[in-house]
Amino acid sequence: MNVVDHLSELRKRVIITLASFLLFLIISFLFVQDIHHFLVKDLNDKLAILGPGDILWIYMAIAGISAITFTIPIAAFQIWLFVKPGLRKEEQKVTLAFIPGIFILFISGIAFGYFLLFPIVLSFLQSLAGDQFETFFTVDKYFRFMINLTVPFGFLFEMPAIIMFLTRLGIINPQRLAKSRKISYFFLIVVSVLITPPDFISDILVIVPLVLLYEFSVTLSKIVYRKKLILESEQLAP
Asked: Which residues pair with 48 in a beta bridge?
């Protein structure tokens, strides 16, 4: 394929991905009130609205995140189709197997943020108010806080799949990951501080899972790298 053919193929994959996103966005918007009801079911009081556009923004944000979630496997499959001609048959099979894992890891990250981290942080921040303040939540502030605390984990939890994928393609290896451990830890700490409220407990609740996730990714990289070496040695053997 020449450059024009590559660009035409890339445009095709992008169009399919965007069309899938728009389709899921429409479907999600049809059920957005049910999703909204699920997200606020544990609140004792109703959320306040300060402007007529608040609820529309929240509905669009909920529908958008839902659409992104279901578009991820399709986008990953389109990327795989784009790079498929440059991969050997064995690499095609291995990389295709990553797509379900990418979707599962994204869902797991969202679930971790929403079901575990978000209630703990919200309860802690409410306890700081005590009886000295009258607390109520606006729909805008509440959902911005929820989104900022949950959605990033969907992408951060993709770390094992990305590291395994890059290891399989030979771009990185376990030795390089081990040497860059300090830099990686520093980056994860910075990310944790940026996406969490400014308190020490929230930072720890985020930093610890991310560090464990990185170490788990390094372990998976070692397994993939070892299998890759065995496969290459078998191919070179007479």
From this structure: 138
